[in-house]
């Protein structure tokens, strides 16, 4: 109701602030009998956690997921899966300088106005640390979607853009470079650029492309819960996301119908895939692909003018350990949210017909 | 559950196929005591309906909304508002040629596979005619949001793009031209282009920009139901939409944090508005603006190769009266869906604090 | 949200006041491919409608259901099933005498206070006429639950109580008498008593027992949505219902565990069925049985003291055509609500395990 | 969806098995700015926990609630309130004798059939231990409902029934005796009887009456979410509950309308309160009162015949520390569930009219 749950059947509800005792969540609606690979979950957590490489924040957060229920003898039991992720490295003092100050382009001002209080400890609930819960739940959703292959990668950093279609990049390259770009040459350029930006005390935006393969026909619910509408919501709910496009996307607006229509092969597959694997809100079996736009991180290491809660003009400067570019660490989050959407629709689709 | 309802508190549930007896819906959760201006609702319906101008489909559908409950003596009573829109112009015969054929880039194939049946009468539930119910409900939501001003306009058709910011266009121009472009000169070019495309028996895509003004601070719910995430879902749920971006959008990915951050004025307003009126998923009082990408209409008046339900290759050609470009008629739909999102969050926000 | 929808997957949303233009509803989530027997639906409507016999209200309401969508060529298509029931016999003048008066033990006072307005036309939304929509939807749910047998009957009228267990009565007798009692001798006594009460201008309460047979094991969801909890809510949501008990019910509170425990037979069936077919909130395959308590109808043909909206003491007397005892007509409503609960859980249970 | 959440706005989602690492839950939708009295929460937990007196189970479970989020500086922040209750006293070995055996009138059989697995450790998710989370959340709901007074008490144990109306008993007596009966003399009889039953290795059922005072007019939502329907569901969702009646309840079925109607006083209050404080599903400001029926606890210390998972007849005997009668400990659970229902409706009612 108040925005902390996601999904209809395979449902994730999360809680937790960046500097409270712990974050956590409940997965309700996961069917019984699913073998859970805890190592695979841990691996996803590692992909998201801070401090993995020289181009991301150097904060140390172990981000270990502790499951409290719903799994017995290695399998889901059908009861809700409760889990917590402890905040071991709270360092509240790092944030004391922003206690009464609204950081520009952060959620400080809007939260304060909406709720009438200020949890000034590092963003509180609006912190991107909350996405750790999504990755944990998404890792279980991935295991439910056994044959489906979800692959996200960085396709642009600032103006450096990978000018290749999803079918032309090299998925094997993604985890080989700290940027998580699906192209070796471009990854090197991007890494260098991010390091330069960090030296400036600045940040930069970027894009992530996600490709979903081996998806069965029929996932997604018309009318309001179209597959791509739910994917779009899922992506836009990730911190710093400013846009979403799937298939031909914004470029497709420039095309004519005679160019854009995906003609069928005899087996129901299509010759082109401008539809991005979704027609009428329902998967058609072709690869689903979409782009997600991330703005530059708002916390910069430069002096900025801002206001405090009294409305007085003050200056502030970011401190501590922040990401100069969010996209490398957002790759597993994009995948996790995709998995949550698909798992939900996969279950729901079992009820579509007698 | 199965995708036919939208909203949490101010909730719309719709039913109806393009060629059944009627479409309709129920609005549940509209507070009692709201004076209803039926003429204003009718006016919105007129903006969406076919046959308004020479550049849209020439089908004749009166699209009159009949309210069956929930309004008594000109005011809402707090009980659900049921309404129907009759399909007076069904012309089923127009569609007989597609009975066993899957139209390229339509929902025919995916619906058939998902539900195991085919309602071949003009798209059935996947028809854009369904959006009439959204416009009716949105018109009531607009009345609930008294002071909020929602303005959508066409900002591109094919490669013709209005290169002006939302603050530089002329809202008064929008209803003066059949394209609903917010710029007189560009409107003339766009109209000419759409006519040319129609002559070719082809279609073309386009974009709509929507601006929301006078919005109170505090609307939107973290974490999953961020204001822009719900707006994005709402837009992506409209037929033919391929992308959504708000504020700086995809262009914002190329910026640095030091450029992109919206510095505060003393009153909490911001010097720039790259955030697009939303920070941390919550409205900050600045204008909300976003772009919606529409693909070219799939039904073209040219011969296309396709397959039938037996998997045989056949040829087909669109018949009847279709839109060469969907964006002019989609303007009121974009506004209606925005209104539904905002009405819901406006009510929900009353419960945010004691 | 605001109480007009029921169910999670197989979901009914209703609208309509007793004296508006029409009532109606939408069934969302019914799987595609279900053959719909319209005559069977009509037959259920006939069982509920007024004027069937000399002991129920003599109002004439045809109560014909018109389906507007979701059914094509005799089968459900998977899209929402919209329907309307017109109010052909509105007779608003009958109710003018209560326009400013709060009828004792009716919803007039509470609706007025809650919503700040008064729809004085025969109860408005609180009228039992709303249950016609439940019967229509329940009739479809029954068709979905092919092999499940739901049988309700009147088990008491005032102090006249059928002292027989559900397994000892004669289901074939139910539709043979206007009381819908499952025992011929008792039916005659009850009918005579209701006639006497009506002559007095008075009303009387009663009970309905419902038995559900051939139910698969596994329906119902722990923890909050236990099968009997949802059945209880369903029954208590029917106008005039004051209580619900299942299995051993209130009598079971007097028993010892050693008497009450249902010992197993080898095949998993039980020797006794004090559990009422539900253990831990989940059906165990034994017959489900429960009792529903209905208060005497509040509208009596005797002069009563009451107050008007100014808080002045006034007198009023019921007019028109009301039921002296509600239970005979409530039998199909109890069955319909049972069917809605079971259909929903039946679908949901398909997702319980891999 | 799958039954682990309760409420629409003020929403509780729970997880946890009796013998897993911890139970817990998330409260979503509690408004910001509520001062939280942790001692009051702890006091409620103490009322529910085992081992409080000689007539309840002697298990030792500290049942301390640890809040992980949503409360900052003693007040709610508007973000979800996550909490855990550790299972410190798991004693799995106590349950090894039932590993392959279905205990009569327990949920063992139905869970196994529904989910295809068996969590034999003390009932798993079906254990009444789950109600600890309800009491924790209910304690917060109580604090939100500042002026509302919710009082539950034991009104019968076996055939020993307190023959007094809710207005005639002594609320101050309730916490003075281990039975939680609102009458000193009857409490002594009940206590003696429960001790006798325990000596027999047997168990017995009972009833709880709950009274809600100082409730504002207008809570509850027609049609399906009537106040008493939601209360009924809440109560029936508690382990071992077999029935629910409010106001005149089952006795009311024997009355005539002329006796049962609650005539108004000039201020809108009523001379009698057979309606039980609810008319048309909405609170009318009079005290709400209802009875809840609990069956005898299924685990008895006598030898019983049963079957194992192979369908073989075996004998078993309860071991360990169980309650001979569940009602004394269920009193705070009944209050907690009432508070959850009322808090939800109290918030929702703020949106009923403009």
Automatic annotation (TrEMBL), chains A, B, C, D:
Pathway: Metabolic intermediate biosynthesis; chorismate biosynthesis; chorismate from D-erythrose 4-phosphate and phosphoenolpyruvate: step 7/7
Alphabetic keyword roster: Amino-acid biosynthesis, Aromatic amino acid biosynthesis, FAD, Flavoprotein, FMN, Lyase, NADP
Domain of life: Bacteria
Gene3D superfamilies with a match to the protein in the record: Chorismate synthase AroC
GO biological process: amino acid biosynthetic process; aromatic amino acid family biosynthetic process; chorismate biosynthetic process
Reactions accelerated catalytically: 5-O-(1-carboxyvinyl)-3-phosphoshikimate = chorismate + phosphate
Presence of the UniProt keyword Cell membrane in the record: no
Record text on cofactor binding: Reduced FMN (FMNH(2)).
The enzyme's E.C. designation: 4.2.3.5
SUBUNIT field: Homotetramer.
Protein's UniProt name: Chorismate synthase
Organism: Marixanthomonas ophiurae
Organism classification: Bacteria, Pseudomonadati, Bacteroidota, Flavobacteriia, Flavobacteriales
